[in-house]
Amino acid sequence: MKNPGTTLLIPFTLLFLFLAACNDINSNNTSNTNAAEPRTAGVKTAVKPEPDAQVAVIETADYGRIVIELYPNIAPQMVERFKKLISEKFYDGTAIHRVDAQLGIIQGGDPNTKENNVAAYGMGNSPYPNVPAEFSDIPYERGTLGAARTQDVNGANCQWFITLKRQPAFDKKYTVFGRVIDGIKNAEVIMGAPTVAGTPRPSDKVVIKSVTLQPRAQFVSGS
Questions:
Q1: pTM, 2 dp
Q2: Would you say 1 and 132 are in contact if contact means Cβ atoms under 8 Å apart?
Q3: CA distance linking residue 119 with residue 47, whole number of Å
C-alpha cells in the first residue's frame, strides 16, 4: 500500500502536510484531496519590509541561536500575536516538530510539543483567536519566516516556519512576517536532523529553551 501522504498533488500537498497549523484537529490527515488552492486576493504588493525595533531570539538546547527580525508593516497582526506569545513565554520549552531538507523548511511553535504525545504534534494552538491572512508579494527565500496555518487562509494562530531555500510554492499563500538575520546555519543544521522513519519529526527532540524579544540594534551593525 502506498503511503497516503505521497498520493496527493504537489505543491499543495506539501504545504498542507508540512504547514498545517494550529487548532486543526485534522492537521495530520492527508486524505482530503479536494481542498481548493488558497485565494491570493488582498495581497500586499510593492511594500518594502521595515524591521521592528525588536527581534525574536530563539535559543535552542543543542543547536545554538536563531535571531529573527519582524515586519509589522507587512503583517501587523501576526507580528503582534508572535510578540504577545513571546512575552508570555508561550514558546519556551516547545520544540521544532517538523523538518524537511528537500522542501527546505523547519516548523515550530506548537505548545503540544512540550509534552511527549507525538501524535498531537502539529495540532496545538494558543488561547487566542486565529489571525487573518496578511499575504504579501515578499518571496519565500532562504531565511524567510512564515505563519503556518490550517487549510483556511485565515487559520494562522501560533505556529511558524522558516524556509531555508527558495520556495515559490509558498508565495502569496502564507503570511510572511519576518526573516532570519543571525543563526541561519543553525537553522540549516536543524533542517538536516535525522527524522523518525516515515515522518518529518526529528528523531531527537529539538528543544527551544526560550524565545525572547531583544533590541534589534544589538544584532545589526549601524542600527
A1: 0.85
A2: no
A3: 40
Q: How confident is the model at residue 42 (pLDDT cuts 50, 70, 90)?
A: confident
Q: To which residue does cell 482530503 refer?
A: 32
Strands 144-147, 54-60: pairing is unpaired
- Calpha distance 39→111 (Å, rounded): 29
Listed in sequence order, the residues at least 6 apart from 90 whose beta carbon sits closer than 8 Å to its beta carbon are 111, 126, 158
Q: Which three cell numbers stand for residue 178?
A: 519576518
User: Amino acid identity, residue 150?
Assistant: T
The total number of residues shown for the chain amounts to 223
Beta strands in the chain (DSSP E): 54-60, 65-70, 95-96, 98-100, 105-108, 144-147, 160-163, 176-182, 206-215
Running DSSP on this structure, what letter comes out for residue 35?
P
pLDDT, tens digit, for every residue of 43-84?
Answer: 999 999 999 999 999 999 999 999 999 999 999 999 999 999
Which neighbouring-strand residues pair with 106?
99, 162
Per-residue pLDDT band for 100 (boundaries 50, 70, 90) equals very high
Q: How far, CA to CA in Å, does 125 sit from each of 89, 90, 104, 153, 203?
A: 14, 10, 24, 16, 23
- CA–CA separation, 51 vs 54, rounded Å? 8
